[in-house]
Recover the amino acids of this structure.
């Protein structure tokens, strides 16, 4: 079974799977300034906290049934016995999810940043950080959902969410550095380092977990 | 005749309950083995062990196949929200020269644009069987392939399997129904 074709057909026939999380993200970002009565400057300061939490929640929502449907209908069995390594298929699936959900949300995050902080400089520097972060989030939540494949996604989220807390600290520091015009490349390198490890390890571990579920 | 599958002393247990013990068989090209047994005796587990989906507790499975395994289990691996044609494209069989022939035989040629969820269980099973019919593998593993099929479709399946055996393919299947397939019987109850 061709996984790229499968995900593209899903995109065509089941738009709520990818459009839903994007709409939820837009709703959070639009609703957040409406709930507080503050000046533009204060709005800009609290924007980033809301942005990171919104991305975290939306990625959690987007990956909720990343493997569940394929597990229930037997597609995962077919992937597992195909001549292509299961970890490549898992990696491809995560990449497609990032392409369909992570990239648009990163772009929208930058647009909202520009709108709320009135800074094109900040928005343009935030975009690559958002791309990297969303990819890390999708990988980690996919791991959690694979772990709790037959037990519901809440358990997986509870296990994986604490793993992302150090990342939120790094993201906060990176934004402060960009705001103060300091060198923030160290933080980007750190995020890239985390991504480069996770991009190989997560699909490998997930493929072992899926095989254990299939037994 | 070439040896395709050799299973030696396979044993499996779940939570200390032994499902089967010391099952051995050899499957050659052009031969079929019909696995029989009561409900819960481990027929599906045995097929999954041969596929590599489940690990045996004891014993060894040796596969000597050149192409991939074609496996049809209890789950059809079809997407309910896609049309029949989209599902077939996922199986990479849309351009297969024999596709129209089998669709006609199964009476599905007018359902190509229909959503799979609108089809009956038996019709969905027939779509899943197209994966088997249009496959390019030398080992077919079928778990209860006749469940949900009408008599005519069962006959098509048996004819197809007997033809494939003549072409040198190896087939391992489980079924509660007696099927008109030239096969050896492996009863795992005993």
């Amino acid at each position: 079974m061709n996984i790229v074709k499968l995900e593209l057909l899903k995109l065509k026939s089941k738009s709520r799977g990818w459009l839903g999380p994007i709409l939820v993200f837009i709703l959070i970002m639009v609703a957040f300034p409406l709930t507080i009565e503050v000046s533009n400057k204060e709005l800009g300061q609290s924007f980033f906290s809301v942005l990171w939490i919104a991305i975290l929640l939306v990625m959690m929502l987007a990956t909720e049934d990343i493997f569940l449907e394929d597990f229930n209908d037997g597609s995962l069995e077919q992937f597992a016995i195909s001549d292509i390594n299961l970890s490549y298929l898992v990696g491809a699936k995560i990449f497609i999810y990032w392409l369909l959900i992570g990239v648009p949300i990163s772009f929208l995050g930058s647009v909202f940043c520009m709108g709320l902080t009135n800074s094109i400089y900040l928005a343009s520097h935030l975009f690559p950080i958002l791309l990297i972060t969303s990819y890390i989030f999708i990988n980690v939540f996919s791991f959690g959902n694979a772990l709790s494949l037959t037990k519901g996604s809440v358990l997986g989220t509870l296990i994986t969410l604490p793993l992302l807390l150090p990342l939120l600290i790094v993201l906060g520091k990176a934004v402060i550095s960009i705001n103060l015009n300091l060198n923030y490349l160290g933080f980007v390198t750190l995020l890239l380092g985390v991504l480069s490890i996770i991009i190989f390890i997560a699909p490998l571990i997930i493929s072992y977990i899926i095989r254990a579920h299939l037994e | 005749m070439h040896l395709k599958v050799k299973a030696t002393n396979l044993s499996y247990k779940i939570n200390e309950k032994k499902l089967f013990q010391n099952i051995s068989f050899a499957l050659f090209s052009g031969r079929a083995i019909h696995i029989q047994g009561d409900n819960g005796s481990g027929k599906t587990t045995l097929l999954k062990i041969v596929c590599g989906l489940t690990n045996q507790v004891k014993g060894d499975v040796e596969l000597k196949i050149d192409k991939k395994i074609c496996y049809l289990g209890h789950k059809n691996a079809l997407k309910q929200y896609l049309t029949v044609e989209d599902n077939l494209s996922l199986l990479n069989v849309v351009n297969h020269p024999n596709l129209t022939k089998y669709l006609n035989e199964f009476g599905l040629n007018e359902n190509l644009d229909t959503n799979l969820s609108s089809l009956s269980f038996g019709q969905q099973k027939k779509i899943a069987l197209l994966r088997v019919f249009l496959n390019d593998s030398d080992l077919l593993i079928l778990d209860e392939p006749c469940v949900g099929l009408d008599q005519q479709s069962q006959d098509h399946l048996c004819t197809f399997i007997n033809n494939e055996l003549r072409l040198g393919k190896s087939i391992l299947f489980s079924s509660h129904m007696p099927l008109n397939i030239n096969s050896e019987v492996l009863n795992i109850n005993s």
